[in-house]
DNA sequence: CATTTTTTCCCT
DNA sequence: AGGGAAAAA
């Protein structure tokens, strides 16, 4: 029962941003609409278009003005602007409305994007089986079967009815849990509509990739089931790029390498053939997928791992003075701060790492990080600006910033629960009594001191609930993310491209840019108080990595403990990796991939 | 000059 | 840590 007897749904809100705006202004329901960011440049760029407008050929990415030409009745909603920057808060809040409903009804919900959720229904279906119920076509008002195109509702009913009959008479009842899954999804979608006002579509299948794929087959306001027996037929008509993870360069490479354009054509390739070109992990993943097998679990995570704000400054609008850069640091810092504060209140956690990203007019992107010691707009803005100063090539006497910045972003991540994970770990580990030296340095992550009163309470209650066991992920379905291009024959001479040599990388790297203003106080030299010595392994660990590092030790201990008692039956995973032992796996992968990448000749 | 703004995950 | 791919509205 481990193989793939799960039932997974992918729920996707229909043209979500448009629905959010229409909920606020219902008079636009039923009319062709879209949501655009900004408006001065050709009426803004559309990031969402509803189905009424799509009938006129309006597409995402178009300009508001262009949409008007195609569809004179088209209405453009504009994303809220704060300090001259698009602000997506309204949609994040609406997203939270949706997830409140999903989470209230199901335990295993994974937020896949602002408007998409995976739900693992397997257990709910088992429960449902205990009290049998008689389902009729009326329980499936918006359900379709993948692989069958129906023009009319009567046709749809005929198909679905036949399928329901088949499932009942099927002795093994292999498909019956998909029936129940579709039934549950009809119900949850109705509930979402009732409680949020939003319509959605859904796909129901035995794994995430298939659920995601078939969700797109009937939209909007419909759901589609993909049964095991229909997979071959569906894959014969599924372009490679339609598969999640293969929509970009990876998919192009697969098509080129194996001379295929749809998924079905990949069936004729052996596991070895796929692995030879794609590596052990990717080859295995694809081999199984083509046969309808994919084991990536639905993880129950609702919270963002990072919060960021960024803005493009294209062409003439690029940030070419220190004042502009300073000022936008302030604006972005303000947005990040506001969202971070809200997140702290709601989720009792704090971000520990601030990351500044910027793209220069030379089209080079850099990202640099520094620890967050204190939540404040000015701290974020100052830290960001101090980092950016390092990359300004103009003399400090000038107010010119060069090369000018065409994209600037500030983000925060590495969240740490205010209910400190370290104290939890300590409570459960053997030597409880020496946790004090972990956070002792002044310059490290001492935000705790401000919150002492509330922390005291929390520590008491901790003993009550044991920490959720570390999820040791099984053969995590890997995607194809290992393809890069190296075709920078461009005229842009690769600047100072003297790789930050392997040695003292950070120091040497910055030293190249500190011609003026070497008073970069918050990014200290190598007399590093950013490092803390781990008491468990005696290795120097970056301060902001310490909590994770601690978790690592903790998880390891737990695992040791568990291995004493239970024996792990080696992951039962299907007909996967036969030969190929662990012996040179790494070398093998790298080798084939390198050859693979370098081989690519045509790339204009 | 111009889809833009996010977010996550993988590779090195 | 930092760069980049992929995906979504």
UniProtKB/TrEMBL annotation:
<feature type="compositionally biased region" description="Polar residues">
    <location>
        <begin position="433"/>
        <end position="444"/>
    </location>
</feature>
<keyword id="KW-0862">Zinc</keyword>
<dbReference type="InterPro" id="IPR043502">
    <property type="entry name" value="DNA/RNA_pol_sf"/>
</dbReference>
<dbReference type="GO" id="GO:0003887">
    <property type="term" value="F:DNA-directed DNA polymerase activity"/>
</dbReference>
<keyword id="KW-0808">Transferase</keyword>
<dbReference type="InterPro" id="IPR041298">
    <property type="entry name" value="UBZ3"/>
</dbReference>
<comment type="similarity">
    <text>Belongs to the DNA polymerase type-Y family.</text>
</comment>
<feature type="domain" description="UBZ3-type">
    <location>
        <begin position="527"/>
        <end position="561"/>
    </location>
</feature>
<dbReference type="GO" id="GO:0005657">
    <property type="term" value="C:replication fork"/>
</dbReference>
<dbReference type="Pfam" id="PF00817">
    <property type="entry name" value="IMS"/>
</dbReference>
<protein>
    <recommendedName>
        <fullName>DNA polymerase eta</fullName>
        <ecNumber>2.7.7.7</ecNumber>
    </recommendedName>
</protein>
<dbReference type="GO" id="GO:0042276">
    <property type="term" value="P:error-prone translesion synthesis"/>
</dbReference>
<feature type="compositionally biased region" description="Acidic residues">
    <location>
        <begin position="448"/>
        <end position="461"/>
    </location>
</feature>
<dbReference type="InterPro" id="IPR036775">
    <property type="entry name" value="DNA_pol_Y-fam_lit_finger_sf"/>
</dbReference>
<dbReference type="GO" id="GO:0003684">
    <property type="term" value="F:damaged DNA binding"/>
</dbReference>
<keyword id="KW-0548">Nucleotidyltransferase</keyword>
<keyword id="KW-0863">Zinc-finger</keyword>
<dbReference type="GO" id="GO:0006281">
    <property type="term" value="P:DNA repair"/>
</dbReference>
<dbReference type="GO" id="GO:0005634">
    <property type="term" value="C:nucleus"/>
</dbReference>
<dbReference type="GO" id="GO:0008270">
    <property type="term" value="F:zinc ion binding"/>
</dbReference>
<keyword id="KW-0832">Ubl conjugation</keyword>
<dbReference type="InterPro" id="IPR001126">
    <property type="entry name" value="UmuC"/>
</dbReference>
<keyword id="KW-0539">Nucleus</keyword>
<dbReference type="Pfam" id="PF18439">
    <property type="entry name" value="zf_UBZ"/>
</dbReference>
<dbReference type="InterPro" id="IPR043128">
    <property type="entry name" value="Rev_trsase/Diguanyl_cyclase"/>
</dbReference>
<feature type="region of interest" description="Disordered">
    <location>
        <begin position="560"/>
        <end position="604"/>
    </location>
</feature>
<feature type="domain" description="UmuC">
    <location>
        <begin position="8"/>
        <end position="247"/>
    </location>
</feature>
<dbReference type="InterPro" id="IPR052230">
    <property type="entry name" value="DNA_polymerase_eta"/>
</dbReference>
<keyword id="KW-0460">Magnesium</keyword>
<dbReference type="GO" id="GO:0009411">
    <property type="term" value="P:response to UV"/>
</dbReference>
<keyword id="KW-0227">DNA damage</keyword>
<keyword id="KW-0479">Metal-binding</keyword>
<keyword id="KW-0234">DNA repair</keyword>
<dbReference type="InterPro" id="IPR017961">
    <property type="entry name" value="DNA_pol_Y-fam_little_finger"/>
</dbReference>
<dbReference type="Pfam" id="PF21704">
    <property type="entry name" value="POLH-Rev1_HhH"/>
</dbReference>
<dbReference type="Pfam" id="PF11799">
    <property type="entry name" value="IMS_C"/>
</dbReference>
<feature type="region of interest" description="Disordered">
    <location>
        <begin position="433"/>
        <end position="474"/>
    </location>
</feature>
<dbReference type="GO" id="GO:0035861">
    <property type="term" value="C:site of double-strand break"/>
</dbReference>
């Amino acid at each position: 029962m481990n193989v793939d007897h799960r039932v997974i749904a992918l729920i996707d809100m229909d043209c979500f941003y448009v629905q959010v705006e229409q909920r606020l202004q219902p008079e636009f329901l039923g009319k062709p609409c879209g949501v655009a960011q900004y408006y001065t440049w050709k009426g803004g760029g559309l990031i969402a278009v509803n189905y009424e407008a799509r009938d006129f050929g309006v597409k995402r990415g178009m300009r508001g003005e262009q949409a008007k030409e195609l569809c004179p009745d088209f209405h453009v909603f504009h994303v809220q602007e704060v300090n001259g920057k698009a602000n997506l808060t309204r949609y994040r809040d609406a997203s939270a409305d949706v997830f409140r409903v999903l989470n209230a009804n199901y335990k295993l919900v994974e937020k896949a994007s602002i408007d998409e959720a995976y739900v693992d229904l397997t257990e709910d279906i088992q429960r449902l089986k205990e009290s049998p119920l008689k389902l009729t076509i009326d329980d499936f008002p918006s359900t379709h079967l993948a692989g069958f195109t129906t023009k009319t509702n009567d046709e749809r009913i005929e198909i679905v009815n036949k399928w329901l009959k088949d499932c009942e008479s099927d002795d093994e009842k292999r498909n019956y849990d998909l029936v129940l899954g579709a039934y549950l999804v009809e119900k949850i979608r109705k509930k979402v509509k009732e409680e949020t006002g939003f319509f959605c579509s859904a796909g129901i299948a035995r794994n995430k990739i298939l659920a995601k794929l078939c969700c797109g087959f009937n939209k909007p306001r419909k759901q589609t089931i993909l049964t095991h027996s229909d997979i071959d037929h569906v894959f014969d008509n599924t372009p490679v790029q339609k598969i999640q993870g293969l929509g970009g360069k990876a998919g192009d490479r697969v098509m080129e390498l194996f001379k295929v354009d749809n998924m079905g054509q990949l069936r004729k390739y052996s596991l070895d053939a796929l692995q030879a070109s794609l590596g052990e992990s990717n080859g295995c993943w694809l081999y199984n997928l083509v046969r309808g097998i994919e084991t990536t679990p639905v993880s129950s995570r609702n919270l963002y791992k990072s919060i960021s704000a960024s803005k493009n400054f294209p062409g003439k609008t690029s940030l070419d003075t220190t004042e502009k850069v300073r000022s936008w640091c302030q604006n972005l810092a303000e947005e990040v701060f506001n969202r971070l504060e809200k997140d702290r209140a709601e989720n009792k956690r704090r971000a520990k790492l601030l990351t500044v990203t910027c793209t220069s007019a030379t089209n080079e992107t850099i990202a640099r990080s520094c620890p967050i010691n204190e939540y404040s707009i000015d701290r974020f803005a100052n830290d960001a600006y101090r980092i950016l100063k390092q990359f300004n090539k103009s003399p400090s006497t000038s107010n010119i910033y060069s090369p000018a910045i065409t994209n600037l972003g500030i983000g925060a991540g590495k969240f740490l629960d205010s209910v400190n994970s370290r104290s939890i770990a300590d409570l459960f580990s053997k030597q409880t009594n020496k946790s004090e030296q972990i956070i002792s340095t002044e310059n490290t992550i001492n935000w705790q001191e401000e919150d002492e009163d509330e922390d005291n309470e929390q520590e008491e209650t901790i003993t009550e609930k044991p920490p959720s066991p570390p999820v040791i992920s099984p053969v995590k379905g890997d995607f194809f993310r290992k393809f890069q291009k190296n075709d920078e024959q461009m005229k842009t001479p690769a600047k100072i491209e003297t790789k930050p040599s392997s040695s003292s990388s950070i120091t040497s790297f910055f030293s190249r840019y500190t011609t003026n203003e070497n008073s970069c106080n918050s990014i200290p030299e190598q007399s590093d108080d950013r490092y803390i010595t781990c008491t468990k392994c005696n290795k120097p660990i970056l301060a902001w990595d310490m909590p994770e590092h601690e978790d690592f030790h903790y998880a390891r201990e737990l695992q040791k403990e568990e291995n004493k008692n239970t024996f792990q039956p080696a992951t039962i995973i299907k007909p996967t990796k036969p030969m190929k032992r662990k012996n040179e796996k790494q070398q093998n992968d790298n080798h084939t991939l390198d050859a693979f990448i370098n081989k690519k000749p045509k790339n204009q």
